[in-house]
Sequence to fold (223 residues):
Amino acid sequence: MSRDDFTQAVKRQLAMRVAYRCSNPDCRRATTGPQIDPQKSTNIGVAAHIHAASKNGPRFNKEQSSMQRGSIKNGIWLCQNCAKLIDDDDDRYSGDVLISWKNKAEKSAHLALQQQVKSEDELDTFLRLANKMPDLLEEMTNDLYKHEDELIREFVVLKSKGITFNSKIPRFVYYESEHSHANNAVRLLLDYNFVQNVTPKSHPVYRMTEKFVDLLKTLYPKT
Fold:
C-alpha cells in the first residue's frame, strides 16, 4: 500500500495556521528561523499525520479514503521531536488527543492575530491554564454569552448547590461539586491577573478582567 502523503500546499497551510509553532501544548516551540546565510532559513517543523499515511502506521484508520489521509484535516504541525514522540507512543497520543492539540494551537494563533495578549508568554500561560480547567472556563464563557446584555463579570465559588449565596448584585456562581478544585483554579487565574479579588465582606468574590473575557470568547466562540 502506497503512502498518502501531504502536498506541499497542505504542509504550508498546516504550518501557517499555527504560526509555524509546534502544536503540542507542552512544547509550542518555534519551528522556523534564520541561518547565518541571510538568504536561508532553518525549518525543524513536520506536517505529521493524525492517522497514518499507510497501513501499519501509527493510528492508522482503515475507514479513511486515500484522499482523506492526505487532506489537511488529517494533518498536524509539530516540531521534529514531538512528531517522533507521538509516533513512538501512539497509544498515549491518540487521534482525539492530536485533534485537540491542533484545534488549540489554531485558536492560539488566532488569539495572537487579534493582539489580545501582550506577548507569546502571556498567550501560552492562558492556554496552559485553559488546558487545566477546560470545563470551568467553558461554563464561564457560556454564562457570559447568556447574559451578554447584562455585562456580568463577578462570580463566586461555592462547595455545592445546596449552599446559597445572597447578593443584590448579579453574579455567576460555580460549584466545587461540579468542578473539582475550582477554588484552586481561581487562585491560578488570580496569580496571572486574569481575575481580581473584589470581596466586599466575608465570602470571596471575584471579577473577570475584560482581557480574560475577550480571551474566553475567542477560545470558545459562540455557536
About this structure: The two ends are 41 Å apart (CA to CA).
